[in-house]
Amino acid sequence: MTQTKIKKSPITENFHHAGLIVQDVDRVAEYYESLGIGPFEPLTLNVAERKFRGKPIVGVQLKIRMAHVGSTRIELIQPVVGEGPWRDFLNHHGEGCAHLAFVVDNIDKAVGEMLRRGMNIVYQSKFADGGAAAYLESDKIGGIMLELFQRPNDYVAHKKR
């Protein structure tokens, strides 16, 4: 068996969460919590600007809940109003794991690197408090988006319970 050498990238060691798109975030959170996963806490993002497939989108409403599981997280996203990668995923795939998220220090640099590696931008957002996110996909392999996430300026680390 030969080992493949993995090229370092902006995401190599910064896994943050798995993002699941669901029809009913409260129902799914309750079910996972009954299995001992969670608790799932509401997450609010202060988004100043959004683009989906290069076009500005407004009026988007999402219900998001996040749970810490060991050293990582599970994010549940329910699209409520508006278009975006979440509604698109739900319409084309149903419920399921839509993305793997990675924290980056410089969103522009990280997105540029992933574009050079053959990824395509699906969604970009800028937060009012200085952070940003981008969803990228590859039509070539994998069937899952990658999210690059630059933390907001006022980010406070989660305290372990």
SSE layout and pairings?
Layout: E1 15-21, H1 25-34, E2 41-42, E3 47-52, E4 55-56, E5 61-69, E6 72-81, H2 85-93, E7 96-103, H3 107-116, E8 120-127, E9 132-137, E10 145-150
Parallel strand pairs: 1-6, 7-10
Antiparallel strand pairs: 1-7, 2-5, 3-4, 3-8, 5-6, 8-9, 9-10
Question: Short description, anyone?
Answer:
The chain is of the alpha+beta class.
How much helix, percentage-wise, in residues?
10-25%
Q: List the total number of helices.
A: 3
Count of discrete domains: 1
Label the structural class: alpha+beta
Q: Note poorly predicted spans.
A: none
How many beta strands in the DSSP annotation?
A: 10
3D shape: globular
CATH superfamily: 2,3-Dihydroxybiphenyl 1,2-Dioxygenase, domain 1
Strand content of the residues, in percent? 35-45%
What's the level 1 CATH class? Alpha Beta
Largest sheet: 10 strands, mixed
Mean pLDDT: 89
Radius of gyration: 16 Å
Trace the largest sheet across and list its strands. Answer: 2-5-6-1-7-10-9-8-3-4
How far apart the termini lie comes to 42 Å
- What is the element string, with H for helices and E for strands? EHEEEEEHEHEEE
As for the CATH topology, it is: 2,3-Dihydroxybiphenyl 1,2-Dioxygenase, domain 1
CATH-scheme architecture:
Roll
